[in-house]
Amino acid sequence: MHYNQPHATATWGTMAKDWESGVNYERLNRERLERAQAAIGEAGLGAALCFNFDNIRYITGTHIGEWARDKFDRYAICPKDGPPFLWDPAPPAKRLSSPWLGGRVAAPVSTMQGALPPEMGIEGDFAKQVKKMLAEYGITGEPLGIDIMELPMMRALEKEGIELVDGQQAMLNAREVKTADEIEILKQ
What's the predicted TM-score (pTM) here? Predict the structure, then answer.
């Protein structure tokens, strides 16, 4: 296991200012993505598909209200190389509020944790959406790490020929050692 060295407990404060260092959110997002991608590569994955809100925030620097946490209607893919892609219930709003994603946001396809019946075939549409993204990244033959997922959605991905493996451990490895900005946030 890796642990941080002791750090001062003084904080820079919660407000951004031009006369004092503080949390650098651009660096925070960049370093988190770099750590996630390194952990994904070290785990031998082509990408990680994340439904866990904490993992989504880590790789995309985005958040949505807690109301959506149990809907499985928001997910993101983090390739070992290249920018992440976010599927969010409100793509236009996310494109405006999160310009660092470069417009890489689309509407999700989800059963909303079983709220939509299986006969609607949503799982198949979801799997095709993910498979198309894997093709865009050029990683269709590589294992796809999953953090958490509904079983019907998982089976649909497997039916598309996608090899699914544990992706949660790679994300936990990425998040284990904190960046300087994460330490500053924790102090606050």
Answer: 0.90
